[in-house]
Specification:
Layout lengths: L6 E3 L7 E2 L4 E3 L4 E4 L4 E4 L8 E3 L3 E3 L2 E3 L3 E4 L2 E8 L2 E4 L15 E4 L2 E4 L2 E4 L24 E5 L2 E6 L7 E5 L2 E6 L5 E7 L2 E6 L14 E7 L5 E8 L12 E6 L2 E11 L4 E4 L8 E3 L14 E2 L2 E2 L4 H4 L9 H4 L17
Parallel strand pairs: 1-3, 5-6, 25-26
Antiparallel strand pairs: 2-3, 4-5, 7-8, 8-9, 9-10, 10-11, 12-13, 13-14, 15-16, 17-18, 19-20, 21-22, 23-24, 24-25, 27-28
């Protein structure tokens, strides 16, 4: 070789590289197939534009014969003829599209965008990612959310309890107290039993009794009694009878009778023929009337004519001397 010139040798296809300042060499580990314009690293018969026999590091990603990974984990993705295995978490920023209408990923069947079969065997999915945040829910419990925290189950402690809302806290199941004594359930129906107020079940009030109730501040009837008003009621009677007070008790009687059709009052009879019809004697200190009838006969004498007897002291027997007498009454005043 000439002084200052580069020296060295190699084989066809090998890419020359410096082994010293003025010396070159070649290796089958860095081979260029000039006829196919293919570069092989670790192979002399590359089948692609670039073929690496073994592992390669590109921008921090390690490419192996069956694995793709990084320096801390070289087998994050395992490539096999039967499928792809991901040895780690898969985070997707967009939809994962299946190459066909039905695709299976680790036993989960995805058909037209919907999971149609398979079981979730991973860890608990939190609420922020559409899960419940828990691996167990109480049987017959009511689910209650807690923001982004795990969903909670609230279970009734006994039959008949009701769910009560709480301010700034989870609702609770509580038994009813106060006026409600119990809640019973039959099938899908429930009924409430009220506490006994002490009032006897009955019908209060009648034609002779007024019901009297005591009501508390909540509107409940706490006592009930009846007030007998029979002594204050008018007694019953027949048509035309009148009432009198018999030692404090009002009593109907027929001794006085009022005919409301003819507006006549009967005393001692129930068929008055005159405005005032008295059957029996009449006693009076004075009597004022327009006409006088005795035994049905009209007395035609005027008051002055009758007054001729004024001052006469006669007995009933003497007055009866006038019975059936007619004509002129003779006495010492008209006999000469």
């Amino acid at each position: 070789s000439l002084s200052g010139l580069i020296s060295g040798s190699g084989s066809e296809g090998q890419i020359a590289f410096f082994t010293s300042a003025n010396t070159q060499s070649g290796s089958n580990n860095l081979f260029f197939d000039i006829s196919n314009s293919r570069l092989g690293i670790g192979t002399t018969s590359p089948s692609h534009k670039l073929e690496v026999a073994g592992e390669g590091l590109i921008g921090g990603v390690i490419l192996g014969s069956e694995d793709i990974g990084i320096a801390s984990k070289t087998d994050l993705i395992n490539l096999l003829s039967s499928g792809v295995t991901i040895n780690g978490s898969l985070t997707s920023t967009g939809p994962i599209n299946a190459p066909s209408s039905i695709n299976t990923i680790n036993g989960i069947v995805i058909s037209n965008g919907s999971i149609t079969s398979g079981s979730w065997l991973g860890s608990v999915v939190d609420v922020t990612h559409g899960g419940t945040g828990t691996s167990n829910l109480s049987q017959y419990g009511v689910l209650v959310g807690e923001g982004s925290g795990a969903i909670q189950s609230i279970v009734s402690g006994s039959q008949g309890q009701i769910l009560v809302g709480m301010q700034n806290a989870n609702p609770i199941f509580a038994a009813l107290t106060g006026d409600i004594s119990s809640v019973s359930v039959s099938g899908t129906s429930a009924s409430v039993s009220l506490s006994n107020t002490g009032v006897t079940p009955s019908t209060y009030g009648s034609s002779t009794s007024i019901p009297q109730f005591t009501v508390d501040a909540k509107g409940r009837i706490t006592s009930a009694t009846g007030i007998n008003i029979s002594s204050s009621l008018l007694p019953t009677g027949t048509e035309g009878q009148m009432l009198y007070n018999n030692a404090g008790t009002w009593t109907s009687f027929s001794g006085m009778y009022w005919n409301d059709v003819s507006s006549r009052l009967g005393i001692g009879n129930t068929n008055p023929q005159y405005t005032l019809d008295i059957s029996g004697s009449l006693g009076s200190q004075s009597l004022y009337t327009q006409d006088i009838y005795l035994s049905g006969t009209h007395i035609n004498a005027s008051a002055s004519e009758i007054n001729i007897l004024d001052g006469a002291l006669i007995s009933t027997g003497e007055l009866n001397l006038l019975h059936e007498r007619s004509g002129t009454l003779l006495d010492s005043n008209n006999i000469s």
